[in-house]
Amino acid sequence: MRHTFLVPLCLTGALALSACGESDNASVERAIQDVNAVDETNLSDVMLTVADPNEAVKYFQRTLENNQDRIDLQRGLALSFVRAKRYTEAVPAWQKVTKNKDSTDADLVDLADAQIRGGDWDGAEKTLDSIPPTHETYKRYRLEAMISDSNQEWSKADSFYETAVGLTTRPAGVLNNWGYSKLSRGDYAEAERLFGEAIRNDSSLFTAKNNIVLARGAQRKYSLPVIPMVQTERAQLLHTMALSAIKQGDTETGKALLREAIDTHPQHFEAAVRSLRALENS
């Protein structure tokens, strides 16, 4: 009798072990998938930040071959095209993202951004007009301000710039853009003020430093503003101010500023030397 019960008992044990084996295999497979998902997310983050933009494009193109409907990979490809300054390819990539069922209004804003970078201002305006007014973000209003600038709708531009400034903790870039808008309109004093605000928010923003010198030069204020600058920057800003003075017809002042720029620069300042020689020879 013992033997009659032994076979069923062994079969039961074998089935149990088989079931356990299948369960363990499934658990391991799920764990591997989870790890791969985490690794892929980390790699995507790296590709969108520190990786070479063109290498990032290749990575997302390869990954999308077997995952064509994944919107995170579609966004990664579109962002990589923008980072690589390949705007002709970035626009259709963003258009594909916006057609995905999981797309958001933020994707439309990114499409408009790519269109502006690619020079399609009319297309960007249409894209922004298609976004509900309830989508209120810094990037949306910054782009709206740029579109209004391009249309010379100054009141709208000022309103959008002001709103954008209030929606970010890092307003230096948009303040610089706003200042340049005022500079292009001939409102030099207001432009100078806005460039100064931009520099106070980001003392490393050399573009704003150069622009504030242009705004001062347009007012025939030929002294450098009191702003943070290293020696090389000081020389470059003196050069900018010299060219501004020459453009205004104040040639002797321009020559003096060029000499000061040459003396200030810690190395040979070829651009300033060339400008001074051209003036003296003429």
UniProtKB/TrEMBL annotation:
Residues 1-19 form the signal peptide. The keyword Signal applies. Keywords: Signal. Pfam families: TPR_19, TPR_6. It comes from the Bacteria. InterPro entries: TPR-like_helical_dom_sf, TPR_rpt. Gene3D superfamilies: Tetratricopeptide repeat domain (1.25.40.10). This is Type IV pilus biogenesis/stability protein PilW.
